[in-house]
Amino acid sequence: MTGLSGSRDDRSGGPRDGPVPLASALADAVDCLAHLWSDAAQGASLRLSPHQLRGLRILGEEPGLNLTALAVGMKIGLPTASRLCDRLEAAGLLERVLHPHKRREVRLSLTGQGRRILDEVASRRAHALAVVLEAMEPTEREAIAEGLQGFLTAHGRTSEGRRDSGPGP
Questions:
Q1: Does some domain include residue 60?
Q2: Residues 27, 36 contacting (CB under 8 angstroms)
Q3: Domain contains 113
Q4: 98 phi, psi to nearest 5 deg
């Protein structure tokens, strides 16, 4: 297995020897997954950058966000978010609508085409992942499911600890 330092450690019995070797193996798997997802997304009828797909996903989950909320959600600046929206709108994937009660605020929503592209990419990604999972042994799939649940639970605990330890109001 390749360690975090990039060297092979033959003394290691596998990823269960501790968190560092497991982190390295997980990083390799995440790289593989990112490549698999990127390839699936690029096969969609409309090729979008990961940045554009992320913007669409956020707006698909929270329709009606304003530009500031989108920028915050994507952790990007307002000018970058504005250019992103310009491109998505030009492609017919996003529409800007004036807020009914706040004349200076514009709401961002996916168009029907934007939702279809987002659904197509999600479907292509799920299919690509399912092909790999199907090639695994059932016990391996079960182990991944259990491990992912444990990872998400632990992440929730560590995330709560970071939020609680931050500066108070």
A1: yes
A2: no
A3: yes
A4: -65, 140
Residue 169 confidence class, pLDDT cut points 50, 70, 90: very low
Residue at 125 is within a domain: yes
Which pLDDT tens digit goes with each residue over 85-135? 999 999 999 999 987 887 788 999 999 999 999 999 999 999 999 999 999
Model-level pTM? 0.71
Torsion, CA 132, CA 135, CA 140, CA 145, rounded to 10: 40
* pLDDT (tens digit per residue) in 115-127: 999 999 999 999 9
What string of DSSP letters covers 79-103?
HHHHHHHHHHHHTTSEEEEE-SS-T
Q: What is the span of the domain harbouring residue 28?
A: 19-135
Q: Give the Cα separation of 159 and 151 in Å (integer).
A: 12
Collapsing DSSP states into helix, strand and coil, what is residue 104? coil
pLDDT tens digits, one per residue of 6-35: 444 444 455 567 889 988 988 999 999 989
Q: Return the CATH number at 47.
A: 1.10.10.10
Residue 47 counted as domain residue = yes
